[in-house]
């Protein structure tokens, strides 16, 4: 493997480890590169922003929607508690609760990009550990798997 190709493979694998929560030092130690190199990749390609984006899970989003539904329900109860409550306001708020709950259910049942990345990073960790004892798992094979993971994630994004 050429030096450039080897470094590209290390960069791709470093990205996967970074997204899995490894520190820059751990990544550098894993691949025999400097922390400065990993830091340069992290900063130049916005890995921290991508990681923060991936941390927004469907469960967190569904919980946020449920909290909104609770607040609207409390507003409905407060409106109904008034002596001459506005039925139009109650109806409108009730419709919003139904819409939010339906959205929360759809989100909770959706496999999103974050879920896919979680599965891929878990698999990648297993492969890295396995590569220490299984000679069939080469750096070239890991690079191909990593590329395919990224292509699949891009495919998911293009459908959304």
Keywords:
about 160 residues; 8 helices; mainly alpha
Q: Uncertain regions: pLDDT < 50 for 5+ in a row? A: none
Radius of gyration: 23 Å
User: What share of the residues lie within helices?
Assistant: over 70%
Strand residue content: under 5%
User: Termini, distance in Å?
Assistant: 36 Å
Number of helices: 8
Structural class: mainly alpha
The main β sheet shows up as:
none
Order of helices and strands, N to C? HHHHHHHH
Mean pLDDT: 82
In short:
With 160 residues, this protein is mainly α.
Give an account of the 3D structure.
- The chain is an all-alpha fold and 160 residues long.
- It folds into two domains: 3-55 and 112-159, no CATH class; 58-108.
- The chain has helices spanning 3-19, 24-31, 35-44, 47-54, 58-80, 87-108, 113-131, 139-159.
- Helix 5 (58-80) runs antiparallel to helix 6.
- The relative contact order is 0.12.
Give the SSE layout.
Layout: H1 3-19, H2 24-31, H3 35-44, H4 47-54, H5 58-80, H6 87-108, H7 113-131, H8 139-159
Helix pairs in contact: 1-2, 1-8, 2-3, 5-6, 7-8
